[in-house]
Each structure stands twice: as structure tokens, then as C-alpha cells.
Amino acid sequence: MDVKRLGVVCVGGTFDRLHKGHEALLLRAFEVGEKVVIGVSSGAFVGRMRKGHEVEPYEERVEEVRRFLREKGLEGRAIFVPLEDPYGPAVTDEGIEGIVVSEETAPVAEEINEIRRQRGMRPLEVFRIETVLAEDGRPISSTRIRLGEIDRRGRILRRG
What we know:
- By secondary structure, the protein is of the alpha/beta class.
- It has one domain: HUPs (Rossmann fold).
- The protein has helices spanning 20-32, 43-49, 58-71, 106-118, 142-146, and strands at 6-13, 33-41, 78-83, 98-102, 125-129.
- α1 links the parallel β1 (6-13) and β2 (33-41).
- The termini are far apart.
């Protein structure tokens, strides 16, 4: 697959319990961008999201993403920023040219592009990945991992 590579793309998320879906999102961002701005939800922002469950501390989530990128030889192309809202630098930084989203977060990319248009900025090129499914055909999510339903690769965990 021939991919057009942009100078700078962004991707954002909470990245709690880094899993196969997160990895697919990150790898796609590095396929389409030379540099990747990775927005990671701050502890304060996570608190305002009312997730209904505990989330790993910000530093641990960033380190887990860094470790994954280091293993893939990509860490040197990453720029980490804390997210205090759903948009981060995507609505203020004219140097960002694209955004990589999942099906679940695609509506946020539309909101970002609307804000950029209102501010006289060029809209971002949107790259969307399909939801990564677990063995049972349901989406892999940090919540399901936390509940012990599946592991980070999407394998069903059987008890007893």
C-alpha cells in the first residue's frame, strides 16, 4: 500500500492499558506522518471525563506508549503533549497536517476541522482506522481489559 506521508500528524487518547487497538492507531500515525504529535489525556482531563473506573497515572501511560514506540524504533519521531481537552494542539497548531482516529473518535476529527475552519486554518487530513476486535468480535477496550474479560491482545480470558 502506497501511503502519502505528511510532515506532522497527530493522534490523541487516554492510552490506558495500552492494547492492540492503541498500537494499531499509533502505527498508522507513524505510517502517514514523519513526526507524530501524541496527545495523552492528562490526569485532570481524565477526571473530568468521568470514566467510571480508575485510570493509570499520566506518567505511566506515557511511559507505556514510549516503550512500545522504542521497541518499534519510532520514539525519535514522537512528540508527547498532555491533553487538557478533546482537541489539544490540533486546533491551534498550523504545522499539524493530519490526524489519525479510530471509528469511535472520528467525530472529534470533524469537530477539530470545524474549529480550524472557523479560525481560518486549513482542515486536517483525516486517516481513520477500523476498530480492532477481540476474539469474540467485540471491540478491544481498556474497560474490557480492566474488567478481566480480555487481555491486551484481545484474547478471551477464561476463569477457573
